[in-house]
Structure prediction request, 313 residues.
Amino acid sequence: MTRLEEAREILKTLGFDAGRSNERSARTLLALAQLSEQSLWIDAVNPRLGVRAILDWIREELDFPVAENTRETYRRQTLHQFRDAGLVILNEDDPERPTNSSHNNYKLTDNALEVLHSYGTEGFQKKVDFYLEKLPGLLTMYRAEREMARIPVALPGGMELTLGAGGQNVLIKQMIDDFCAYFIPGGEVLYIGDADDKLMHFDEQKLADLGVFVDTHGKLPDLVVYQEEKNWLFLMEAASTHGPVDAKRHGELSALFAGSTAGLVYVSCFPDRAVMRRFLADLAWETEAWCASDPTHMIHLNGDRFLGPHEEA
Prediction:
């Protein structure tokens, strides 16, 4: 058998389904173990590799022309399942790294490496049995580590959930904790976007009651909050690195929520004023801007409202 065929056999022996023991997944296993057709299984290693490094290795060492547009297929249809099954560890060097980071990496577990080293020997089945026996405990440990790195969030109505660590989610938590408390008291959170789970929280029925029928394949805002008292629907974007409500995004959101019976309020949210300054010239008129560093204040990008003197303290 070829190394590719042997890799498929190993994955089947470890209980992976057809989609995770096909040639794509077998090539991924060989890349993770750095094994070419000329290598021996005892030579397998387990460095930390990003998706790009894995694909480059498959192209160069296995002479297989991986198309760049299949990158997400390798990540979502093989590596995610390898991680969930405990075959690989995601971000061993930094468990709190955001899931959409360009520095994400995967590494075969030491237990999995022992199985690969034993392939073709009399002790292979014994190593497999030991691996599968230990796996439930290891999976519990890996999941607990991932949960510890998540961000706890309490919604205004009392519901509690967790967001993936890092990235925009740090700012989204501040938007829920602070913006909602100061500007949308009693607000009802209808949608939260999360890199780990696009539909982390999605009250589809409430949005439908407001005349909004959202195509979840479209790009929803990061946070949608309804204020029943005023019948306002807040469409909020977290912009720590990108994605404020510029003219293009304003048009997209207007079209996406065109059927809303509630008034639409567009808000660009930034971690601080230094970040906001980078985007200020691009912000759309008739929108709002808010900084988590100054949570009690907001900038109104319009000329027909809120003009007038302030009372002296």
Q: What stands out?
A: The domain at 151-301 is CATH 3.40.1350.80 (Trna Endonuclease; Chain: A, domain 1). The mean pLDDT is 85. The CA atoms of residues 55 and 66 lie 7 Å apart. The chain has two domains: 3-148, 151-301.
